[in-house]
């Protein structure tokens, strides 16, 4: 049996597919499990023994190159599991001979919850379980426990004693941590060495290790693996740390567990303020606090983060 798992982006979402594929191979060890993703994210699957082959598409090559890739490579699969649900992946439904299966995003339920506060039972399901649902339904296997679907990555880097990875950045302002400098100083005072990574400006604090800026995905993996513990916002590095098994403090501002990406895995503690009534204000976070106070993050002091780290 040949199976293709499809997820094009983004980094965190792709990392969360890895535990699903691992569980599939555990159940069907003789199956061939391949993945299709954007070229920059092919590195996520490198070194994972349960992934047989990675098909990658570079958007810079244009849509004709994608059609050519599908014609050449996607005709011999028995099953295709679309874990993205975008037009590019749904194209496979009509242009491959395989049985096509798509996961349920529940996008409308999430938007409705933000707008009206009305909960749908689907919001209680973690995204890795949603990824596994079409597998369970297709092969009539039970839904695994959440920890069995924990993401996994490969890195040879070993943790350096006292090094704490800090990622205070995010794609949206309301998911960023506003006390990065104060947190760095507090960590230093407590004998830790903060290592900053990500696309953002590290605080101007003597004693930190600054690895912010453009790095390869592999370098990011190794930087995180080389730290004893991790502090991260709701972003890609949070899922990297979870997949690498590093004890992690997840700092959640405007987003909540209702969106399915909550790090409910062993070794992860979440710092958040559930008393802020306007959380969540948006499914993906926003470029500015719509209320102007940013209480969802401003209440999360460095002392609270340090307490969760210990």
UniProtKB/TrEMBL annotation:
Keywords: Glycosyltransferase, Transferase. The keyword Protein biosynthesis does not apply. InterPro entries: Glyco_trans_9, LPS_LOS_Heptosyltrfase. GO terms for molecular function: ADP-heptose-lipopolysaccharide heptosyltransferase activity. It comes from the Bacteria. One of its GO terms (biological process) is lipopolysaccharide core region biosynthetic process. GO terms for cellular component: cytosol. CDD domains: GT9_LPS_heptosyltransferase. This is Heptosyltransferase-2. It comes from Seleniivibrio woodruffii.
């Amino acid at each position: 049996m040949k199976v293709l798992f499809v997820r094009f982006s983004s980094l965190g979402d792709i990392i969360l597919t890895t535990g699903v594929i691992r569980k599939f191979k555990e159940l069907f060890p003789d199956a061939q499990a391949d993945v299709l993703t954007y070229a920059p994210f092919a590195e996520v699957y490198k070194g994972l023994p349960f992934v047989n082959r990675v098909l990658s598409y570079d958007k810079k090559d244009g849509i004709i190159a994608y059609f050519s890739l599908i014609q050449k490579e996607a005709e011999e699969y028995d099953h295709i599991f679309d874990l993205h649900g975008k037009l590019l992946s749904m194209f496979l439904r009509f242009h491959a001979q395989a049985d096509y299966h798509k996961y349920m995003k529940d996008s409308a339920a999430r938007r409705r919850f933000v707008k009206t506060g009305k909960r749908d039972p689907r919001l209680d399901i973690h995204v890795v379980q949603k990824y596994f649902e079409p597998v369970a339904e297709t092969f009539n296997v039970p839904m695994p426990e959440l920890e069995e679907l924990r993401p996994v990555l490969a890195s040879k880097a070993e943790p350096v004693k006292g090094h704490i990875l800090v990622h205070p950045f995010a794609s949206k302002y309301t998911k960023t941590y506003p006390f990065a400098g104060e947190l760095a100083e507090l960590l230093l005072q407590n004998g830790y060495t903060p290592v900053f990574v990500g696309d953002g400006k590290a605080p101007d604090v003597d004693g930190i290790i600054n690895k912010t800026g453009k790095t390869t995905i592999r370098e990011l993996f190794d930087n995180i693996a080389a730290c004893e513990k991790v502090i991260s916002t709701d972003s890609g590095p949070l899922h990297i740390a979870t997949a690498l098994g590093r004890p992690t403090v997840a700092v959640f501002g405007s987003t909540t567990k209702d969106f399915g990406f909550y790090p409910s895995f062993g070794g992860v503690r979440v710092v958040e303020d559930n008393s802020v009534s306007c959380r969540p204000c948006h499914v993906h976070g926003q470029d500015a606090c719509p209320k102007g106070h940013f209480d969802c993050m401003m209440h999360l002091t460095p002392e609270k983060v340090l307490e969760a780290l210990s």
